[in-house]
């Protein structure tokens, strides 16, 4: 009797162990799904903050990508145009048109690069043959293309703007013409080279006290011309040619308290016209009122 009960107990234990093993295998094979926690309802303020954060992060990521693209475009000399697309469509179209228009007009020079440099550096580069002066010399190529026939003034006291394009140096009389050249250099380089300049001969006429001297002085300063007037011609002869017959005749009349005759004044003007500046650049003549 004892043996039978022991055997039955052992068989029951084996069955229990087998059931436990089966349950473990089933648990491993088919894991019980965890109960999902119920999400709390998100209020409007939290939702707004979350959306703003997500949009901000996405905007920063996109902005970094755009900056990377802009740098790559800059390296290969491709211009970048930025327009605010959040505005009204007609405003966006207008802004885009204004930015694209110069590029279309200057498309021949789209990939050209010009470098504004100081005049001192430009002269130094030319002196050491690091860069070359263009075939236009000191001419302002923009003013030349617009019909200017005045030879450029080589005055150290007058500011000159310089630009380096490829291996050549160009000079400009003002900032506006320099900027025009930088925007489209090929537009101005395609013109014919300047021809030798004939000296200018400008006469300023008018009644007394009408501003003839002021106009003549401004023209002379602007274009580097010699200013000639009757009084200036007489003074020049008296100072530089004291012992000449002409100077003695003038002094003779002045010592007597008389005015200088028109014939002597004309001779003084002829002497002044022999100056090298008059024969190379030209002159502005302030015509006096001679007696008839």
From TrEMBL:
The keyword Nucleotide-binding applies. GO terms for biological process: nucleobase-containing compound metabolic process. InterPro entries: Adenylat/UMP-CMP_kin, P-loop_NTPase. It holds the Pfam family ADK. Residues 1-49 are annotated as: Disordered. Residues 8-22, 29-46 have a biased composition (Acidic residues). Gene3D superfamilies: P-loop containing nucleotide triphosphate hydrolases. Keywords: Kinase, Nucleotide-binding, Transferase. One of its GO terms (molecular function) is nucleobase-containing compound kinase activity. This is Uncharacterized protein. It comes from Callorhinchus milii (Ghost shark).
């Amino acid at each position: 009797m004892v043996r039978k009960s022991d055997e039955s107990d052992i068989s029951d234990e084996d069955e229990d162990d087998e059931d436990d093993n089966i349950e473990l295998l089933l648990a491993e094979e088919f894991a019980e799904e965890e109960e999902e926690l119920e999400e709390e309802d998100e209020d409007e303020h939290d939702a707004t903050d979350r959306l703003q954060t997500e949009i901000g992060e996405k905007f920063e990521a996109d902005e970094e990508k755009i900056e990377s693209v802009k740098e790559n475009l800059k390296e290969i000399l491709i211009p970048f145009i930025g327009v605010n697309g959040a505005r009204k469509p007609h405003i966006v179209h207008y802004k885009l048109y204004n930015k694209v228009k110069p590029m279309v007009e200057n498309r021949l020079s789209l990939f050209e690069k010009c470098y504004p440099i100081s005049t001192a550096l430009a002269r130094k580069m030319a002196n050491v043959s690091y860069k070359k002066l263009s075939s236009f010399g000191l001419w302002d190529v923009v003013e030349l293309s617009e019909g200017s026939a005045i030879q450029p003034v080589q005055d150290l006291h007058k500011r000159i703007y310089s630009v380096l394009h490829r291996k050549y140096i160009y000079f400009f009389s003002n900032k506006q013409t320099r900027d025009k050249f930088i925007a489209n250099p090929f537009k101005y380089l395609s013109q014919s080279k300047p021809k030798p300049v004939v000296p200018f001969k400008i006469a300023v006429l008018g009644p007394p006290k009408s501003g003839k001297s002021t106009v003549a002085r401004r023209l002379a300063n602007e274009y580097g011309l010699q200013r000639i007037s009757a009084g200036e011609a007489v003074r020049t002869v008296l100072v530089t040619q004291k012992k000449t017959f002409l100077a003695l005749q003038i002094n003779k009349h002045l010592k007597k308290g008389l005015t200088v005759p028109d014939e002597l004044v004309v001779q003084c003007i002829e002497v002044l016209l022999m100056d090298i500046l008059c024969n190379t650049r030209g002159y502005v003549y302030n015509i006096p009122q001679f007696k008839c």
